[in-house]
Structure formats: structure tokens, C-alpha cells
# Entry
Amino acid sequence: MKKEQQDPPPRIVGVESHGITAASLDSDAAYVLKKLTKAGYKAYLVGGGVRDLYQGVSPKDFDLSTDASPTQVRKLFRNSRVIGRRFRLVQVFFHDNKIIELSTFRCRTECDDDKKGEVLAHNNAFGDEREDAFRRDLTINGLFYDIEQETIIDYVGGVQDLDDKVVRIIGNADLRIGRDPVRMMRAIRHAARSGFTIEPATWTAIQTHCDSLSVCPVSRIRDELFKDLHGRASGQWVRFAARSGLLTSLLPFYAEVLEEEGVEEELEQLLTAVDMVQSTGGRLKDDMLLAVLILPWARRRFPDLNTGLKTGDAFALSREIREHLKHIMAHLDIKRALKEQIATTLTLLPLFMKNRGKGWPKWLTKKSYFGQGLLFHGLVQQAGGGEKVAENLWPKPPRIHKKTIPVSRPKPRSKGSRAPAYTNSKSKGGVFGFRKG
Ligand code: ATP
Ligand code: MG
# Structure
């Protein structure tokens, strides 16, 4: 009884203010919501879906939340399965490998829990919708959309923050970040993506806790980093990351150069070029993105990257960079092949710089790495105020549905070795198979 008196009612925002109707939702998501409500359960669109629709953006995915337990959901939707260790979710399958994910309202014990510094344990305790709203990360991600009433239900002040263009962690930012440091990455991602500011208490908490990312599982951090790099707002993201301390927490080697003049600006310009390509239909590969991200550091650590390098020296440089990457990226558990690709891509830069404007030599255009080197060189040129990267160089995204079940096919056995893309200095082809000279 006491609890009911303390909890203020949520703010209900009608369709006349937000304009989101049932037709704004993905038809399969709408079907799931309607079927659940017809069966007597509460069911809402939640999280990023509501945030994006409110801003007039098409959501990347539609996450739903309900008071039905995973078992009850499974009974309603035969074409579904339960997944997740940390949180149990139900995935409902549709045509074209589309998946709609449903979570059961979870409790907010983790926000009330006062054990500072203790990272979130496995938590599957169910709660009510209010609790579910408060256990979410950001106020703008804590909204529910009721498809029957066409209303937004707001327990956390998210609508006001959307109107004010502010990113704010729900509850006590210090405590919530301490419980799950990945929330820092999510806060700066959404601020960058939406062009929002970060509320002062949230910003201070991020600066205070930036080093605590290291307590999170590496796989989570790496996934979040790639989401940022693919997220089409990485130019703005890197500015927040650099200024909050998160960048040096993610990539500690940046500590030695980040204060130097022009480094932050260079990062921002490079990643803005990446965003331009990725927001107009290209999808860059992970090695290209990481090569771009570490280039301003690498240019200062290996000044030879800035000169037209003799191919004979490129082999030694590439080997040195690879050796470095082994150590400086060990904490991210990046695959060896990916690190080798990054070293190759970086070392291609001086070669392309040397030949720029002269017409690419025929022997170079025949190399397997020509497209990769040209793209990297193009991004660097564009970032420096040069011409835009030609569209025919953009790798296109695979044509699959946004949320798909990966179809695993056996990989054909590679005939070649796993050796890096260069040959030793004694072989005919020279470094990277480049012509000697
Ligand atoms: P995107 O557009 O990238 O999908 P999103 O906000 O929907 O953005 P998801 O990873 O799909 O991101 O997460 C769905 C929702 O789950 C979020 O909107 C948020 O409410 C909640 N959530 C995700 N991660 C956390 C976290 N670490 N702590 C609390 N809530 C979280
Ligand atoms: Mg989402």
C-alpha cells in the first residue's frame, strides 16, 4: 500500500502529441502485440523502437515487453524459442528469417541495490511495467507504446528528454553505471546518433567511471565498439569518447597521443568520412574500420606511414605494426587474421600516397589488395578535405533481413596458408607482392 502512495502515475502521451499509430509499427510486431493483448496480457513496444518512432526515424528493430512469462509466450506463438542466459527472451519467427524479440517485464532490484562497484549479476526476476521501465538504461529508452490506446506510457521522463534532446541515465547515474559499465557506451552512442547532449550528472558519472569498462566481458565491449563504428555517427561518437575518457579506456594506447594537437580532430574527420560512406549505402568491413580508428595513433607512432615508403621498408614496417597490434589489441581479443588485415591496410597507405595523382601503376591495379588500399586511401583523402570516396569502391551490405538467423554453411577449405598478405623480402613479389624497387 505504502509503495502505491509513493509511486507517481506515469505520464500518458496521446497520439495527437506523438503521431505514432499502429500502422507506424512493423506489421509482425503489431501482430504479436495484438495477439498478446487479446489473450489478456499487457504488451508494449519498448526501448529503441519508441524512441526512434517518436523522432520520426525508422527503428532498426522492434523490441517488445509483456507481463506474460516466457513459457506463456511460447504457448501463444508456436514458431518461437527461448534464448539468453543473462536475460531470457522469446524470439518469435516470421517469414524471411525475421525475428521479433519479446522480454518479460523485469524487476528493478538492480537499481535499488546499493552494492556499489558490483557488476550486475544474472538477473531474471520478473517485475511489473514500472519496474521494467526503471531497470532500463536511458530515459529515452525507457518508454512504452500501447498499440491499443496509441499512447506512450512514460515512467522515467523520457518524452521530456526527447523533446529537450538530452541523454540521461535512468536513476542514479553513478550507481547504474557501476552496475553495468556498458551503459556508458550506450549513452554516448545514443547522444551521437541523435545529436543530443548528455545531461551533466550522466556526463560526470561517465568521466568518473570510464576505466571500469575493463570489468565487463570483452565480447560485450567489442560488440558495442563495432556497433559504434558501424553506427553512422562515429564522427560525433569519437568526440564524446575522447572527451569522456572512454576512448583511452577502450584503446589505452591512445593515451600517449590524444592530447597532441590535431589528434581528436583527425579522428573525427576520418570517422565522419566513414559515416558518409556508411549512411549512403556502403558497409565497411571491421578491419577497415579499425584501421581508420587507429590511424591517427599509428601515424604518430610510425612516422614512416606519412612518407612515400620504399616497398623494401614496407615489409619491416608492416611486421612492426603487426607486432604492436598483438599487444595493444590483446585486451579486445581481436582475431589474428583481423589484426593482420589492419597492419596490411595501414601499410598500404604510403604506397598509395606515393602513386597518387600519377595514375595507378598497372601492376598495382592487378593486386588483390588494390580495392582495399584504394578505399583506405580515399577515406584518408576525404577526411583531409579531398575528394569524396568514389561510390564504386564502397563494399555493399549483404542483402539480408535486419534480424536474421544466421545460416551456417561449412566454409570451403582455403587452399592458401594463413600467412599475412605479403611475402618475405627474398621472394620475387617483394613486400605484399609489390614490385620491388
Ligand atoms: P538500437 O536502435 O541500437 O537497437 P536500442 O536502444 O533499441 O537501440 P537494444 O540493444 O536493441 O538498443 O536494446 C533494447 C532496449 O533494451 C534498450 O532500448 C534499453 O531499454 C534496454 N537495454 C539495452 N541494454 C541495456 C543495459 N545495458 N541496461 C539497461 N537497459 C538496457
Ligand atoms: Mg533495439
